[in-house]
Structure formats: structure tokens, C-alpha cells
Amino acid sequence: MGSYEVSPEQALQTAIRFIKEGRVQSVKLEGGKEMAPTIRKITQAGIPVLGHVGLTPQRQNALGGFRVQGKTSAGALKVLEDALAIQEAGCFAMVLEAVPAEVASIVTEKLSIPTIGIGAGSGCSGQVLVQVDMSGNFPPGRFLPKFVKKYGDVWGEALRAIETYRDEVKSRQYPALEHTYPISGEELKAFEEAAAGVKAKGTS
């Protein structure tokens, strides 16, 4: 956010820096028709661009919040026009986010480049899901978008492990003998005898 919106020239400078210093192979940016000149500027410099249309999280305030895009005929047509514009500008693929499945399928059919769906149904060329969401690595009660499927419960498992650790420390079950380093009986006896003659700190 803010690294490419000012001008196509700013975006190209940022992209060049990412490629040179970040050692990445492509860049991703959000936006449709209005971003086509920026995408063209970057791709003409030989830097691959992944586009992103539909719900664009960095611009969600202008969309009235995190809302599904393309729910009306006019809205769906805008998503298609945006997708075609950024394909024409040189994107090698694009993310379609929070778009009705039927709309995403039609958009995907109209394009010659792959679409990666997130909340856009199974008709896209591929899918993406945030790892924190899919793995369940978040506390109970957190808002989740409708499209998220929780494939695991990392948070619950981590909490279970931490609580078990706490309980075992309090009961002195942990650390057990197998978690400690050994000393020979002979050396321990010598140490105990030596320690017996050492005054405890603060005693006279």
C-alpha cells in the first residue's frame, strides 16, 4: 500500500527495487482498468506482474468495506472489464477475490491467462487461501470470511500443548529425568561434599 499508487513511474521504481534487492521474480498489485497503465509500465520493463481484481483489500474503504464484488450484472461486467484490461496490460495471471462463483467462471473462460480464486468458487484456474486461516491458527471468535475452510486447529493444539506444559511444570512432572543432563555418582558425591563446606549467600 502506497508503494505503487502515486504513478506508473513510482510503481516501476518500486518493482525494480523488489526484483534487485528483494530477489523476487515478479510483483503483485491490486486494481483493474485504472491500474492498467501502471501494469503496462512494469511489464514493458521486463518484470512479470500478478494482478488482483474483484475485492481489493488495500482499497476496501473505497468499496464500502470487505464486500463481495460483481453481485449485479453491472458489477460483474466491471470485474470482467477490469480483468481484460489488466490482461491486456501484460499480467501473467490474476487473483479474483470475493466474486460470485458463476461470475468468476465466466471471467476465467474469457481470459487467456490463469485466475487464482479466493472466495470466487471452483471455476478459477487455481485457488489461494491464507495459511493462518486454513490451518486454524487464530483465537476463537475471530471473524472469518465465508470462503474460508478451516483444515486444522493449530491454535487449539498450541493452546493444549502450552496448558499441558504449564500443568507439568507446576506438578514438577517436567522436566523429567530424560530431559536433564547426567553426572556420574562419583562426581556428584564429590560435589556434594564440596558444597557442604560452602556458605550460602547472605549467611555469616
Automatic annotation (TrEMBL):
Keywords: Pyruvate, Transferase. Pfam families: Pantoate_transf. GO terms for biological process: pantothenate biosynthetic process. GO terms for molecular function: 3-methyl-2-oxobutanoate hydroxymethyltransferase activity; magnesium ion binding. It catalyses: (6R)-5,10-methylene-5,6,7,8-tetrahydrofolate + 3-methyl-2-oxobutanoate + H2O = 2-dehydropantoate + (6S)-5,6,7,8-tetrahydrofolate. Belongs to the PanB family. This is 3-methyl-2-oxobutanoate hydroxymethyltransferase.
